[in-house]
Amino acid sequence: MREAVAMLQTAIDGAGGVLVSGEPGTGREAFARAIHSATSGELHSSVERLLKVSMSRSPNGRPFVVVDCTATETLEQRLFGCAPFATTPEQNALDRIREGSSLHAALDGTIVLSHLTEMPAGLQKRLARILRDREVSLVASDGTERSLPVAVRPIATVDTGATEGRILPDLLKRVAQITIAVPSLRDRREDIPSLVRHLVREICRSLKVPRKSASRQAVALLAALPWRGNIKELGELLRTLVASVPGSRIRLADVLAKIRLDGGASQFAYSGSLKEARSRFEREYVASVLGQHRGRMADAAKALGIQRTNLYRKVRQLSVPRRRAGAQPS
After folding, report:
1. Which residues pair with 39 in a beta bridge?
2. Closest CA to 175 of 119, 97, 105
3. Max Cα-Cα span within the chain
4. Has residue 223 got a pLDDT over 80?
């Protein structure tokens, strides 16, 4: 995550196209918004600061336009607004866009091409030509046309490993001057406590309910879950918890009551007796918390809400692998 934030800061300091890759739900659009909204030196390495910046309003009124490239049937109309070329001979060298199209709306700002790999090759070629020439023929509502410079920063978001052979080289050169790889949530578990604090605060604000917080044990469990849906899945669970928990504190029991054991938020499936399932859950939970704290027994025990001596005993009783629990006691 530190590498991703470092590349993000490089993108903020620059002006070229940016390719943001990652699994669905990792917050690729949040990175795009941060590139658009942040100023030089603003992010440092704070994940919470990244989230705050990504949710801030566009500075100086610069437009921020997101285009979903998966809706291929209407993509040309939404992105360009009209057919490719002007009819007058003197303008044939310029491509055309119409007033009100996404490209027109994004002028002097940022256009985010979400799932760029889904854009048909013909439209990719047309977009690459516009980004190369930096000039178009703008079709006004009355049908008149005039040449217009194209000052727009492209940011493309794609799934991890999905660019191979699916983005034309000329377009890739325009949108991938800087590449940012956003890690999955399970690869950055140390960020989950900060994410939980920020998301719970924002969810409370959006739902207009009194401020709530999660207990240390609840956060430890949240940090141990696999999060196949990444931040999006975490946010959905937290919204459910904020809406359903009556008090101001989200506790471990509240989280346990909401996670699914059928392949959803939790990694456990139905098998064996209740006692066996409980032991398996506890073993994986303890191992995950220890892994989150890099094997530091004192920190893990504090997160679990138990004495360190009890944690040593549980590690032995549950046969938690030492490579996951950490070889060195703290």
Report:
1. none
2. 119
3. 84
4. yes
255 φ/ψ sector (left φ>0, alpha ψ -120 to 50, else beta): alpha
Q: Which residues pair with 178 in a beta bridge?
A: 18
User: Which of 268, 264, 269, 190 is CA-nearest to residue 232?
Assistant: 264
Query: Quick one: which of 18, 241, 254, 4 has its CA closest to 116?
Result: 18
- Select the more confidently predicted residue: 243 or 163: 243
Side chain identity at 61, as an amino acid letter?
A: G
> Tens digit of pLDDT for each residue in 14-43?
889 999 999 999 989 989 998 998 765 555
- What CA dihedral angle connects 61, 111, 239 and 306, to 10 degrees? -100
